[in-house]
Amino acid sequence: MRVFHPLLPALLMAELRAHAGRSVVSIIAIAIGVAMGYAVHLINHAALTEFSQGTRALAGQADLEIRGPRSGFDETLYARVARLPQVAAASPVVEVDAHLPARREALKLLGVDAFRVAAVNPGLIGRPAQTQAGNLDLLAPTAVFLSPAALAWLNLRPGDMLTVQVGLGTLALRVAGTLPVTSEALRLGVIDIGAAQWHFGRLGLLQRIDLRLRPGVDVAAFRRTLAPLLPAGVTAATPDDDQRTASDLSRAYRVNLGVLALVALFTGAFLVFSTQALSIIRRRTQLALLRALGMSRGALLRLVLAEGAALGLAGALLGTTLGLALAAMVLRYAGGDLGGGYFPGIRPSVHFNAGTALAFAALGVATALIGSLAPAWEASRARPAQMLKAGDEETPLKRLRSPWPALAIVAAGVALTKAEPVAGLPVFAYVAVGLLLVGAILLMPRLAHWIFSILPRGRRSVPYLALAQLSGAPGRAAIGLAGILVSFSLMAAMAIMVTSFRVSLDQWLNIVLPAQLYLRASASGDTGYFSGADQQIIATAPGIARAEFMRTNQILLDPRLPPVALIAKPVDKHHPAARLAIIGMPTQPRTGDPPPIWVSEAMADLYGMHPGQRISLPLAGRPVPVTVAGIWRDYARQYGAIVIDLDDYRRLSRDQRITDAALWLAPGVGTTQAVQSLRQRLPGAGQIEIAEPGEIRAAGLRIFDRSFAVTYLLEGVAIAIGLSGIGASFGAQALARSREFGMLRHVGVTRRQIGAMLALEGALLALLGVGAGLALGWGIALILIHVVNPQSFHWTMTLHMPWGLLATIALTLVAAAMLTALASGRRAMSAGAVRAVREDW
């Protein structure tokens, strides 16, 4: 039994060569989907792998890490934990993210005890470059040991000086040697723990204690034993927990990027389907002749599937090549944060894996095969005698006229929008979007028949013939219509979602940036701060009418989730909406209630907090009762933020440090004058980052645009694919209708009239496709805005329609459809009318 017909290769190549344009469009669509998915996977895998290696390098042989807030916890905990019988060795650590002047990214500095760290993580013991000093450099108060990656990044060598910001001043550290860490991309510096506490104002505080347990000690059981001994806000975690938390931070973002890749693949599958379906309609006579000459149903099925597989294979090979190049480019120039800032400072390199590449290539081929399956099955099951008759082109599409399967699919999609997320991901929302797309596509034949049947045809031949064709052959028209529907609806949905998010972000920035000037002690890291004297100078500087100060810290509420931002700033407790984007009605404070806090939407989603609820916050190592007074919108922190009044925070935590300041200027004082005054009066003013609200807003929107760069790219791709799909659909239909054109020519219809008829058909189809696509895109956008974003990132936004953009693209599609339909009919009309009619005999 032959698996492949001997004529299959020749027939396959002949069809692909004859219609190379439509094939190229399908190949490009599949290639884009494969490239996006493969690139996202490579970037994320490289970043997570590098982060995991860095985490293991920092943990060394530690079984557990006791971690607290960034501000630290009491160092007396170290002595209590180190004496526990289950602990073989304990290493105290001071951890800071040091801001380096003239650098945007911070350098992680660890303060370690050289005598204690050796038993837990020898990789953190520096190797002195100068043998004369010996191991005394390990204890020198100004000596720092840098990892190879840090040395290369800073362009330093042993013996050079490293300048670090502390407060508004600087600290000069001598590079005394290197670190034997195993991670090639880990930027790290190590200094003596006492020197770190002294230099960075951490006296009596630790950020971490690394524990190596005795052989045979059960880690999980010891964690339960250790938990009651830990202060509030301090937890014990394994190195694997840190890797999982880092992966969870970027999971929603990279999954959404992966879904965008699937959208491109879906578009590619649909283009393959439309290309193959129209090709089958056009070639029904030829295929019937092959069946009559002895080709079996199975051979014909394999022929059509082979055509789709060839398109998928070409798209898959192109996509994996582009994906590898794209990943390498992104990792080289933008790092491994996927545009979302999840892995700052990591510069991993891409690693090719044949198995992964084959998997994504197989996905591309499978996509094309799925698109070819329905046309192939229909062609193989049709009867040759019926296929040889004229007018049979609409027969395989008649079964699509029933609206009930499509309506059931749409109803299922709408119902799934109410489903809860799965593992924090909007899985059912994605499925709902797919069902809406499929249901809308299946509704197109019925919708086209109904719309074009009720339109008045008039007495003129051109509109009469155009409407008769569209209403009489709705299945064939729906294929071209569905191409417009898919591309325009997806483009519209993404445009509506991105515009809504961007406008909501801009409105949010207007609320949270009420002052005329903003000061930040350092552009990055946590070593820059304003002392009490600095705050006094800022508040009393000439031209400053009012100054408000802010402190940002991190606290841990749930060990299974990332830390939460704690923002201490002046808040009017009776009118918090003046400084916060409050959602709903806030709770008014009552006498005797604990201090109020205002939590972000993410806190309400992840921790179930609500106004009026009383909770405890870990401050200064003890639980402090507070009252949730309201919920506010925050687009900066995906895993939650809490705002507390600055006076309450200082009273409860005894933390006097300030990291930011907001300034209102006196009447008649310009920002340039105020900035000059501050720089003259403040010591170390060169370290301060000063910005106006407009600059901060522009920077925030630039970050937004960078994060959504892939979405913008896909919008352009959707438009290009839509225009190309129109050309492919109308070209195939025009060729399939060559006998119809010949008959019209015989009865006296001119070429000009046929061209006008085709242009009108294209315009009507495009108008219907744009209208239906706008409605479908609006529905998909509602799912993205009100389901996907809250379930993925825990924030909400208001709907904003980009009418100008949508109208421009809609008019472009309609005009392109008219021109494409007219151009596509030229080839069919160029054949002799008699020869075209003879094909029916």
From TrEMBL:
One of its GO terms (cellular component) is plasma membrane protein complex. The chain crosses the membrane at residues 20-43, 257-281, 301-334, 354-379, 400-416, 428-456, 477-498, 712-736, 757-785, 805-825. Pfam families: FtsX, MacB_PCD. Keywords: Cell cycle, Cell division, Cell membrane, Membrane, Transmembrane, Transmembrane helix. The keyword Oxidoreductase does not apply. One of its GO terms (biological process) is cell division. The lineage of its organism: Bacteria, Pseudomonadati, Pseudomonadota, Betaproteobacteria, Burkholderiales. Residues 259-382, 717-830 form the ABC3 transporter permease C-terminal domain. Belongs to the ABC-4 integral membrane protein family. LolC/E subfamily. It is a multi-pass membrane protein. Residues 23-226 form the MacB-like periplasmic core domain. It is found in: Cell membrane. PANTHER family: LIPOPROTEIN-RELEASING SYSTEM TRANSMEMBRANE PROTEIN LOLE. This is Cell division protein FtsX. It comes from the Bacteria. Its main location: membrane. The keyword Transmembrane applies.
